[in-house]
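Sequence only, no structure available. Ideas?
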Amino acid sequence: MRSIKDLKAELKPIGKINLMNFGKEVIESLSNILFDDEIIQECAVANDKMTNSLVIITNSRLIIIKKPFKGITQEIYEKGEIKSVKVNEKPTTATMILDFILINGEKRVKLNLNKQSRKFTEYITSQFHLDVTQEINRQSKIKIEILNGQKDLGFYGSKYEIAQEKPGEISFIVDNQKRDNVFQFIKYEKTENIKKSALDVAGWTFAGNMLWGKTGALAGGLSAQAGKDNSTAALFLVDKKTNKNIMLIIKCDSKILGKLSLIIPAQEDFQEVENQPTSDKYEQLTQIADLKEQGILTEEEFQQEKTKILNQ
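Reply:
I predicted one. Tokens follow.
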């Protein structure tokens, strides 16, 4: 029997508020269900017909614990019973529907669309045969204020919007005119400790591409000019026509973050181009030297990036 304290630690990814909503009875119920050697792999919260459910995938079973108005119900499925999983992501209703195809029947789980449900789904789909259906809200546009990166986009304007028409791809509407350029949407990251004044520093975009996917390191590299502004986000894109990596810095509040979470990212992992031409290396060395002179990169960071470039 697992202790309540240990279980709460294992269920921490779903959030403190969700655990409080379930109450002690649900945690105790799960404690009684789990085997001593059973390991919780992922967890999520499902919501169907005003009833919350705690959904657990362990190394051997799928466990669903519901807490209706009265009492607690449990559903348990051995992993061997699950033949495949159908995933239907619906940004228009902010839901993620998982249909577990069982040897004898089918079980539907409806998750709220958020980072934890995506993480849960990613694990599920790595374990079982997958059938994906993704719904795109073609009418939905996200208004954004770009602080840095317009030059890399190749077009300027006073009003920017992004829209998704295919999974993993976005396009831009600039001053109410749709651009033909199509961009692969890799991901977005919330940036912290970055001042707006630092966004005009020469080489910012270069540094962003160099540290692709490591926003924390990027922010650390700008510590000399950092503030406490946490209302920005970085969009990581690839121009499908030129294959150019682009990082946009945009103004970002909770509403924008919520809308960004509904964009379906590209499925394939991004890999930076290796064996770049020597002329590109010289250009990169010049850029990091400028960053060092401006105090953006420390001597240690400069030497690290220099070694990376020369070893490409």
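Residues 107 and 298 are 55 Å apart (CA to CA).
Hope that gets you unstuck.
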